[in-house]
Amino acid sequence: MIVLHALFGAGQGLAIGEEGAGNVLEVLHFVATAGVIFYWASLDARARPQALSAMQSVGIVLLGYFAMPFYLASARPPDTWPRWLSKGLAALACIITAFFVAFSLAARYLG
Question: CA–CA separation, 21 vs 3, rounded Å?
Answer without folding.
Answer: 20
